[in-house]
Amino acid sequence: MDLRLIGIDPGLRCTGWGIIELDGNRLSHIASGAIKPSSADPLPVRLTQLFDRLCEVIASYCPSEAAVEETFVNKNPSSTLKLGQARGVVLLAPAKSGVPVAEYAANLVKKSLVGTGHASKLQVQTMVQILLPGSKPETTDASDALAIAICHAHHRQFATKATSAHMERIEV
Predict the structure, then answer these.
(1) Which of 6, 7, 66, 87 has the fewest Cβ atoms within 10 angstroms?
(2) Distance (Å, whole) CA 3 – CA 23
(3) Is the pLDDT of residue 110 over 90?
(4) C-alpha to C-alpha distance for 43 and 157, rounded to whole angstroms
(5) What pLDDT, in 10s, does the model give residues 45-102?
């Protein structure tokens, strides 16, 4: 039975998304893209654009599970806060659609694909294209989102149990 997964690489300027299918151990590329809210708009409008577009992607491709990259803290507190707000929207969109969400550290994503947690974006992009023949992500954010989905395909049994248990606690 095929399982459809969405990987999401959150960002306020550009959020990458990637849809793959998992059939046993076989991975297939379905679609990928990037959501780019208008930087001219105020923050609440940009977050709304991000949420609405991501909800459209989820409704179009009907993933069974979602995976999101965890936020890293950078040197600029303002940038970190804005990324956190975008990430909150990215977590909310699949959860509101009833799709369980797992989270992965960037180093684990890179290590799962390339074998080292400090791989370059080019190394990750190359490995995504090897693992998903025919995929041609339009941006590095879309490529990263596919990498997150692939990481989830490899680690989902543990992540899904933890996410399901957490969601059951929320519903009670």
Answers:
(1) 87
(2) 7
(3) yes
(4) 36
(5) 999 999 999 999 999 999 999 999 987 767 788 888 888 899 999 999 999 999 999 9
For 99, residues 6+ apart whose C-beta sits below 8 A from its C-beta are: 6, 58, 63, 64, 65, 66
Catalytic residues: 9, 69, 141
| Range list of β-strands (E), the chain | 3-9, 15-23, 26-35, 65-69, 101-104
The residue whose two tokens read 């992009």 is: 125
Q: Which amino acid is at 18?
A: G
d(CA 30, CA 10): 19
- Distance between CA 166 and CA 147 in Å, rounded? 24
Classify domain 3-171 by CATH architecture: 2-Layer Sandwich (3.30)
Beta bridge partners of 28: 21
